[in-house]
């Protein structure tokens, strides 16, 4: 396509699409020995019985997956003590989050998120021509209930709250969340992507409050980020309306099979969860010795304030020079922080060794 034809074709883009940044070129291939701690992935292998379900599902590769995800929803409902009409299954919880925006927002509407939070929400708001309101956490990362109920967020169509929060890893007591839900007449979207690493969860609130939607994913605690398995739990009327908006055959046969197998064998992952939490504590202690200030985390990652005169971007680049990838967020007052996913013991040893080398060389 010539430049003139391309410009003519692009001129037909909607004004929303024109506002989006053009996708960057593909990054260079990762070094095979790279320690990848920038995406909060769970690096541990699936239990053999779960892996076998994926292999068996390949035999169904020529068939369309089950529409409506009925068996997977039924399995999740049984385990979590709900009915199937209270469950929606998705291509990761990000698909379900997108459905909420599509279902509730018209151009000019407002959505509120406690900030800093999951940045994908900003893009979703832009795509739906909505106003995106970020409400800061209270002192010691407490829930800003009064601001959400009576401040600028009072007109928001819905409120997004992640618990544990990303990128901070902090956790809000479920009693505080219940007070917010009980006092609000708007939808509260509780994103519990990291809840399996936390001391409590909000799923029991689903049967008490019709204005609550709880989102879960198997990407973090069940090591299926590449398979895209997510769930939403809420009132049957809410869930039913979201399901009518889903794409046809939104999940694939492998995702169905692995999701059902994980649900049936959740106990097989408990050792994995414990290993991550132990490594999280060890890494916190070691980083503190090196001058980092680490926020208390209830997720599979840590957010750490970097020491000295260099900012988070400098540390991210320095670690990449040692073949270690971490995340950096240049907004919301996080310029002096890096986020580190918790990997295997070997990966964390490599990371801590690189941090020590960088610290000594920068003195």
Q: Name the CATH superfamily classification of the largest domain.
A: Type I PLP-dependent aspartate aminotransferase-like (Major domain)
Helicity level: 25-40%
Report the portion of residues in β strands.
5-15%
For the biggest β-sheet, the strand order reads 2-8-7-6-5-3-4
CATH topology (level 3) name of the largest domain = Aspartate Aminotransferase, domain 2
Q: Specify the oligomeric state.
A: single chain
Overall CATH class of the largest domain:
Alpha Beta
Which descriptor suits the 3D outline? globular
* Count of distinct structural domains: 2
- Run of helices and strands: HHEHHEHEHEHEHEEEHHHEEHEEH
Structural class: alpha/beta
Radius of gyration: 21 Å
Uncertain residue segments: none
Counting DSSP E segments of at least 2 residues, the number of strands comes to 12
Mean pLDDT value: 93
Termini distance? 53 Å
How many helices?
13
Biggest sheet architecture:
7 strands, mixed
Q: Judging by the overall fold, what is the CATH architecture of the largest domain?
A: 3-Layer(aba) Sandwich
Summarize the structure in words.
By secondary structure, the chain is α/β, with parallel strands linked by helices. The chain has two domains: 26-45 and 269-361, Aspartate Aminotransferase, domain 1 (Alpha-Beta Complex); 48-264, Aspartate Aminotransferase, domain 2 (3-Layer(aba) Sandwich), CATH 3.40.640. The chain is built from 13 helices and twelve strands. The chain has helices at 3-10, 15-19, 48-57, 70-80, 93-104, 120-127, 145-150, 174-183, 236-243, 253-264, 270-289, 312-321, 345-361, and strands spanning 35-36, 87-90, 110-115, 131-136, 158-162, 187-191, 212-217, 230-233, 293-294, 301-305, 324-325, 337-341. It is globular and about 60 Å long.
